[in-house]
Amino acid sequence: MDIPSLKKLSNGVSIPRLGLGVYKVPEDQVYDTVLSALDLGYRHIDTASFYGNEYGVGKAIRNSGIPREDIFVTSKVWNDDHGYDNALKAFERSMEKLSFDYLDLFLIHWPIPEGFPDTWKALEEINKTDRVGAIGVSNFLDHHLEELSKTANETPVVDQIELHPKLQQKSTVEYCRRHGIAVESWSPLGRARYLDDPLLTKMASNYDKSVAQLIIRWHLENDFIVIPKSVKAIRQKENANVFDFKLSTKDMEYLNQMNEDMRIGSHPNDMR
27, 147, 170, 217: most buried by Cβ count inside 10 Å? Predict the structure, then answer.
């Protein structure tokens, strides 16, 4: 049985399991990038205030001709906006730039020490309204999640973390699974560092697929939400063409043992 394209979060909200990330997509390019993805059938767009492209994302969605309620949109509160009042203001700024009445998912971008508990309180307050569908975190390791649990009234529904075959973050993933937190993978292709791997190339060829498709399928079969980034329509189409095959047990076992704790992005413990 194929993995369905929607995943139900712990609060009952459904999120598309495959989305488009727009990190480092400039404001003047993100409009066409998002329109292209939506035209190909994507219904999940992940942005953030730090990306500086919320305006273009919102404009593309509004001009797409697709009902707003059919598109799942995520944004995030940046490090400079931690704290209860600051986070509430950051949410309003994001909503203004997106020109939306509501946001599907709002995340704390990074676990800034001593800041994120109060920031989470602000997200909990927003979550009492009809202006957000769900709240969660990004880049939280298991010890950050455990610290948050000491003061939180609600458990995050999502933890969006850097995750790819050579960085599997198993302790954080296990913590999330124990507590009903969905895991979402950013940089799921390791910033293209796998695409020329000869063993993965041979493995992918057995399915008549690319290495990128192979790895995205690995994420899906591990029950991760996955948000690969591409500004090119041909790559967006390739990344989405992953629901017509299933990895063998042997291939899943091989990919699952590739972990080397090879982090490409910043380490959450180093963020200040």
Answer: 217
